[in-house]
From TrEMBL:
Name assigned to this protein: S-methyl-5'-thioadenosine phosphorylase
Reaction(s) the record says it catalyses: S-methyl-5'-thioadenosine + phosphate = 5-(methylsulfanyl)-alpha-D-ribose 1-phosphate + adenine
Molecular function as annotated in GO: S-methyl-5-thioadenosine phosphorylase activity
Family, similarity comment: Belongs to the PNP/MTAP phosphorylase family. MTAP subfamily.
Length: 319
């Protein structure tokens, strides 16, 4: 059996789209995607520790496989600041993944992005607070690299996914993407608390359209690991910027997620097989080689320990 080409990262609620038969979730029956078959769980120990969950190998109807990691753990027991992004991305690279399609609930910072709408962002504002490990380099390893991050998402992958999402959305829901010189911008905050009203209004002034707590360091680490990365977002609320409304609550987020379950199911069903086929046919460019000129430390200065560790994700450079 060939390795999975696509990695999927989402929360434990999203996992029920894929594995409705699992018994250890409290959200019974939420998000079912009956067309995927559970093949096996792979326990991975990376040089950066264990990922948030086992890597779950799932089969599409065609037999092609995808690899899933529950970002916040199987029981949603890991806060955004505690997610081991290094291990999650490294584990997906280790099992053969070439590109990641990540899913995230987001708050809307724009009136036109309604709860239930889908968004595929192309830009990020990083408002995390250096609590999270956001690079595979440095960290007393003696190897420095500066990955290009001007385009935080893989443009070709996101552009391929967008029309697939749009064509399956029911009437009344919209897909929001960048257009012309107008970016679709996500601001990533530290959390786990939601924004203050002042913060939410500031993010709007900065040009952000949506907000979440998870895209950083995921997108940065995927870039360093030479993996394609795209994010499909679902708006659950209007964050805290509206002056005439109460700020967002967890109850509101869960309610909208539940309402939007079927829409997310159809999106996933429509996207994953097409992305797999496109990657197999080289219609979406590989990211291999993208870090070639980012590593600035001379090879003769690599230590044995750094080569052993970094070869896990970049074997071509650290043999």
């Amino acid at each position: 059996m060939t390795n999975p080409l696509i990695g999927v990262i989402g929360n434990s609620l999203l996992l029920l789209m894929f594995l409705p038969v699992l018994k250890h979730f409290s959200y019974s029956g939420f998000y079912k995607l009956d067309s995927l078959k559970h093949v096996k769980d792979v326990g991975v120990q990376t040089p950066w520790g264990r990922p948030s969950s086992n890597v779950m190998i799932l089969a599409l109807p065609s037999g092609a496989q995808i690899a899933f990691i529950a970002r916040h753990g199987i029981n949603h027991s890991i806060t955004p600041s505690e997610v081991n992004g290094q291990a999650n991305i490294a584990a997906l690279k280790h099992v053969g993944v070439k590109a990641i399609v990540a899913f995230s609930a987001v708050g809307s910072l724009r009136e036109e992005i309604k709860p239930g709408d889908f968004i595929i962002p192309n830009q990020v504002i990083d408002r995390t607070k250096s609590i999270r490990q956001h690079t595979y380099f440095g960290l007393n390893q003696g190897v420095v690299a500066h990955a290009m991050f001007g385009e935080p998402f893989t443009t070709e992958l996101s552009s391929f996914i967008a029309p697939l999402v749009k064509q399956v959305l029911p009437s009344g829901l919209n897909l929001h993407t960048n257009h012309g010189d107008r970016d679709s911008t996500l601001v990533c905050m530290e959390g786990p608390q939601f924004s203050t009203r002042a913060e939410s209004r500031m993010y709007r002034q900065l040009g952000a359209d949506i907000i979440n707590m998870s895209v950083i360091p995921e997108a940065k680490l995927a870039k360093e690991a030479e993996l394609g990365y795209s994010l499909i977002c679902t708006s659950t609320d209007y964050d805290a910027w509206r002056m005439n409304e109460e700020p967002v609550t967890v109850a509101e987020v869960i309610k909208t997620l539940t309402t939007n379950a079927e829409n997310s199911k159809f999106v996933a069903q429509n996207v994953l097989q097409h992305v797999h086929d496109a990657i197999s046919a080289n219609k979406i460019p590989s990211q291999n080689g993208s870090m070639q000129f980012s590593i600035v430390t001379s090879k003769d200065k690599f230590t044995k320990e750094s080569k052993e560790k970094l070869s896990y994700i970049l074997p071509d450079y650290f043999k």
